[in-house]
Model the fold of this input.
Amino acid sequence: MKITVFGTGYVGLVTGACLADAGHDVLCVDVDPAKVEALERGVVPIFEPGLESVVARNREEGRLGFTTDSAKGVAFGTLQFIAVGTPPDEDGSADMQYVLAVAATIGRHMDGYKLVVNKSTVPVGTADRVRATITAELSGRGVELSFDVCSNPEFLKEGAAIDDFTRGARIVVGTDSDKVRELMRECYGPYNWNHDKLIFMDVRSAELTKYAANAMLATKISFMNEMANLAERLGADIENVRLGIGSDPRIGYHFIYPGCGYGGSCFPKDVRALERIAREVGYEARMLSAVEAINEQQKSTLFSKLNNAFDGDLNGKTIAVWGLAFKPNTDDMREAPSRTLMEAVWAAGGGIQAYDPEARDECRRLYGDRKNLVLAEHRMDALDGADALVICTEWKEFRVADFEAIKAALHTPVIVDGRNIYEPSAVNAAGLLYFGVGRGDGVRSQPSR
Done:
């Protein structure tokens, strides 16, 4: 099939590369000339394990191309994927200007049948707005052409996007058209061999499914963080509680790890957008409001623990931070807990020495060059002269640590573990003061200095 993908961000680039890898001819369109030129040179603008090799392989084999020419993009593919950003507006709703701009472009340039596929995360009713926008453009041109619009939400986890696309549990398509069903079966056929993962439903249900999935996972995270805060006050260990409830197959172990809050491009934005959607139809989604409030509060827990460790005085203190990305295997710092921590430390008069294996450039882009921010090349370099260590991201390389070396490098033997990757007893045994999330006695145990 010939497929056009509008947008070469996280979703668009993964979608285009994987569809090309399945044997389709794919042309990706983006308005950013620098990004397109870099992609043509094989430079992938985001860190996603495996993506660079997939892009390179399919570029070399002639199945994947990039352009800024939107008219060329519309002419190229029968399937037109819209995978542009839907950033949050000030009121929390999704900003639809980029999606509707692509729809207008398609209507302006199409000269035959097109299947327009909404891949971006969009509010319920967007397919109707996309259809109306294309119809208006065609009407303005004085032509009548056949087209369809369907919803095909993405379910990609940053850090595992290639596997999610190629081996995902389901492929949701919202449509009431037999022709669309046939085309989408052909599109995803190479990834649908072992068993039928395609789930067809009405368009509005498909649009809501994406929001509902992310809201459910975010709810599990916020629930466990709420339990962690309670465990801390009761002297219980949330890690034991997690094992106790996760063993119940009705609950499971996924997304019940307590920590310092969720971030990234999806959960925060989608929970707020769904809450906004509910308000627009006269429904107060109180659980979603609570999920968001708990998460925002949880992001402050690292600073609170750190501040308590230094009796409320961080002025002049230097804090080592391990992990800047909102999760491992990505360089994405959107709404990352590390940002909340660093900005609070700076506001309190302290400085940051940070290390992340992938997100240093992104951190530099966000905050620029400042005297109270040092970006280290190695994790132990971040500890030199620091007063405490805070873990913000659970990268694998942080899971095994030499606590004696950490203690020797720090001015004050304090670790604030925002991801509970260490056993409190092991940290305490090395003479360090350990603050975890909901670790009960482990938090209260204060070794001699």
Residues 278 and 285 are 6 Å apart (CA to CA). The first strand starts at residue 2 and ends at 6. The mean pLDDT is 94.
